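A.,

Following up on our hallway conversation. Structure tokens first:
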């Protein structure tokens, strides 16, 4: 494997959509019912990917020319002091090799993360443990799944505490 992480390029949205949809079906289906997975797949078309990352910094993880992972960071509802991680996925056969951690490290070195006192992620049930290992804790102490089927996690930067 010759893994590199680079910024999103116009035209990546199709490959990103395919990897997100495949990962949802293969990795997340053990934790979610089929109708949830079908809706999530429908929400990650190439057009929707382009729309979702319009104001974000998106990264592609490549093994040669093949995009095998992705992750994005943006302002939390347009905030300049809070950030939001989104669309973080790694193809199933590449999971467990540190690629997800490298994506988070890349996002945490991005200017959106550095300027924020707090960063949030809506973690899938499947990915909660991964984010917890990287220092993300349940938002407001709530560990249950929200109405979107995710667990809201957050990380405070520096010495800031609520």
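Then the amino acids I'd put at each of the 162 positions:
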């Amino acid at each position: 494997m010759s893994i590199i992480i680079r910024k999103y390029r116009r035209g990546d949205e199709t490959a990103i959509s395919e990897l997100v949809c495949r990962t949802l079906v293969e990795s997340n289906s053990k934790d979610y019912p089929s109708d949830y997975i079908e809706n999530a797949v429908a929400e990650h078309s190439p057009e929707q990917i382009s729309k979702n990352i319009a104001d974000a910094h998106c990264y592609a993880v490549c093994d040669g020319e093949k995009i095998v992972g992705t992750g994005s960071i943006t302002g939390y509802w347009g905030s300049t002091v809070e950030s939001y991680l989104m669309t973080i996925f790694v193809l199933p056969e590449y999971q467990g090799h540190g690629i997800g951690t490298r994506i988070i490290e890349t996002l945490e070195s991005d200017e959106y993360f550095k300027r924020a006192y707090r960063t949030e992620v809506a973690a899938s049930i499947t990915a909660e443990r991964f984010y917890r290992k990287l220092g993300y804790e349940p938002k407001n102490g709530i560990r249950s799944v929200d109405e979107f089927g995710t667990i809201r996690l957050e990380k405070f930067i520096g010495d800031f505490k609520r």
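The helical segments are 13-28, 34-42, 46-52, 99-108, 111-114, 128-133. Curious whether your intuition agrees with the design.

B.
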